[in-house]
Amino acid sequence: MIIQRVVLSSRPGVNGEPVAGNFRTEEATLPDKIAEGQVKVRTLYLSVDPYMRCRMNENSGSEYLLSWKLSEVTDGGGIGSVEESKDARFAAGDFVTSFYWPWQTKAILDGKQLEKIDPQLVDGHLSHFLGAAGLTGLTSLLGIREKGHVSPGANQTMVVSGAAGACGSLAGQIGSLEGCSRVVGICGTDEKCSILVSEMGFDAAINYKKEDVAQRLHELCPAGVDVYFDNVGGDISDTVISQMNPNSHIILCGQISQYNKDVPYPPPLPPAIEEIRKVRNITRERFLVLNYVEKFAASTMQLCQWIKEGKLKAKETVVKGLENIGAAFQSMMSGGNIGKQIVLVSE
């Protein structure tokens, strides 16, 4: 059987910006027969995420992320339907997901790496299992619960950077649901600011490209910042940290401004900001959602419940066609999207 697949064609360089041309679509042959324990799947949706930038380097810089190899198929979060199964847990017609889904139209996968998903949990929006009800939502929810120390009734203010992105747009909503009294987002366009406030329940939003972030934070967070959901790192984070209260908490979700730079993760803070962090006893611990696998099932049910109740709104930017996944990746890394970036491979 002839299928389409996407491979890594070239590396952008450790400090380079990724472009669509780093990926190549090509034909490949899939075996007609599957072995015991294997499942043949048709790909429906693929997830495109900022962490993948690290996988484009020869060395990902992380012990838990494998680098993609040149001229070999790329992979990530995916959802598909079962066409044939030799694993007793799956039958033709089941919907399944995996963190290691190859970027190709059809695939033969080991049943052990698949998990069955129920479309009814998300009112039929299967793609939500890659975003708000998937690893993105889990990262936001567990990050806040494990590292944010949010207490209902404590009158806490949360600031979210990269607030219009996949994690950020969920984190602000979850912060409110978990008990923060005020949530302020930071993003890069007036349109994104408007959507955060009018649709996603943020109390206010700052356009860092047009506004003085330090001044606006003073105005919007007069009692200081208690919880900071940090998606970006860099200058924006330094500005937020300088306005954080004693014994406050930073949730280190991602450092997108640092992904194209050869620096350790998490990147060290400038000396003056690190001194503020120490003096005020601000926690800034690395957060890795995969360390909390035992909490995934209950947390996923909580996310699905909020989605069905309309309390958690899932924004998605959907691009059609496997051949466009490279362009989708480039757009996402340049900050052009709102919410989760999804590629629709087949319907």
UniProtKB/TrEMBL annotation:
GO biological process, one term: prostaglandin metabolic process
Keywords for this protein: Cytoplasm, Lipid metabolism, NADP, Oxidoreductase
GO cellular component term, pick one: cytoplasm
Family: Belongs to the NADP-dependent oxidoreductase L4BD family.
UniProt GO molecular function: 15-oxoprostaglandin 13-reductase [NAD(P)+] activity
Organism: Podarcis lilfordi
Superkingdom of origin: Eukaryota
Entry EC no(s): 1.3.1.48
Annotated protein name in UniProt: Prostaglandin reductase 2
Chain segments annotated as coiled-coil in the UniProt record: none
Subunit description: Monomer.
Keyword Protease included in the entry's annotation: no
Reaction(s) this enzyme catalyzes, per UniProt: 13,14-dihydro-15-oxo-PGF2alpha + NADP(+) = 15-oxoprostaglandin F2alpha + NADPH + H(+); 13,14-dihydro-15-oxo-prostaglandin E2 + NAD(+) = 15-oxoprostaglandin E2 + NADH + H(+); 13,14-dihydro-15-oxo-prostaglandin F1alpha + NADP(+) = 15-oxoprostaglandin F1alpha + NADPH + H(+); 13,14-dihydro-15-oxo-prostaglandin E1 + NADP(+) = 15-oxoprostaglandin E1 + NADPH + H(+)
Location of the Alcohol dehydrogenase-like C-terminal domain: 168-260
Subcellular location: Cytoplasm
Oxidoreductase N-terminal domain residues: 6-117
One Pfam family it belongs to: ADH_zinc_N
Biological function: Functions as 15-oxo-prostaglandin 13-reductase and acts on 15-keto-PGE1, 15-keto-PGE2, 15-keto-PGE1-alpha and 15-keto-PGE2-alpha with highest activity towards 15-keto-PGE2. Overexpression represses transcriptional activity of PPARG and inhibits adipocyte differentiation.
Keyword Secreted in record: no
Predominant cellular place of this UniProt entry's protein: cytoplasm
